[in-house]
Prior knowledge:
- The chain is α/β, with parallel strands linked by helices.
- It contains eleven helices and 14 strands.
- The chain has a six-stranded parallel sheet with strand order 2-1-3-4-5-6, sandwiched between helices.
- Helix 1 (15-30) crosses helix 10 (283-290).
- The relative contact order is 0.14.
Amino acid sequence: MRIGLTSGFKATNIGNAFFMDGAKYIFNKLYLNNEIIEVGDLAVNLWRRGKKSFKNDFNLLNYLDLDLIVFTGPILNDFINCYYHFFQSLSKRKIKILFFSVSGYSFSKEEIDNCKTFLRDVKIDCLVTRDSLTYEIYKDCFSESYNGICSSFFIPDYYSDIPVSNIQKYITLVFDSLPEPLISIYGNSKEILSEKNVRIFTKHSEIKYINKMLKVCESFLPFLNKQNSYTNINEFKIIRPTHNSTLRYSWELYRRCNTYVSEISQGYLTLYKNTSLNITDRVHSAVASLVWNRPTRLITNSPRSILFNRVRGEKVTEKISTLDLNYLSEEKEKLMVYLKDKF
């Protein structure tokens, strides 16, 4: 059996790599006697502003010899119609389609109505969600569905450690969409950083304002962001990973000290595994530190953060938190059991 795992767009958002590589690990582990192939997603999925020119696109996916193709991420969004003819062609070729570790994007009524209309016309064989809200909305649109978790929670299972040395204790600040907040730390570096000894100065109204501005013209964000170029907070070094490294100017990427940029995920995972505290506006940045039991705070209004509710981690958007790793382990095992004999 040949199983194709769609992948790509990792440099535009390195968090995509976290759940895509998680899915790759899961399918390789479960289906040892099958051929697991990583294939590129539809190009129009990224270059959507120029979709009129896609009459000139050569879509290799139309010619793949597969038995099952797997799509991951927040695919249940307003852009799903771009897959219409492609999914129809897959059905004609008797290729099964699995939506795995998927979610909605905005969860607006318009988005949901659009996706349900799409799913009535196109046959998707199975749905495995990464949050309970997506499951409840779409479970009846599929012949089979499972209330799963995000495949990015499998990071510790597939991550290849990168040995590092001589880095002092550090904090990661990851802000691609919002102004970086001011941080104050009380006490000393021997204490575990938590709500007791960390103050994060940001306003919920500011988040709403910036999100609104992003919809108007996100390219002006660098000029809206009040820059903090400090390199340390007390005895902690500040390291600033950015999850969006392409389609941006170098001066925009490196406008803050100790910025980390890469097109592969291992360096990011190394930083998150060893951070003393991760404060971020990126959902999968928060996942990557939480799975290592690192104190984490996610500052966002994104409805996609609901994936933390599925693993009892919803408090991460309210305060510095960690996960119940025992519960997470149980949910990971349940997902593996469900998938084991499915295909």
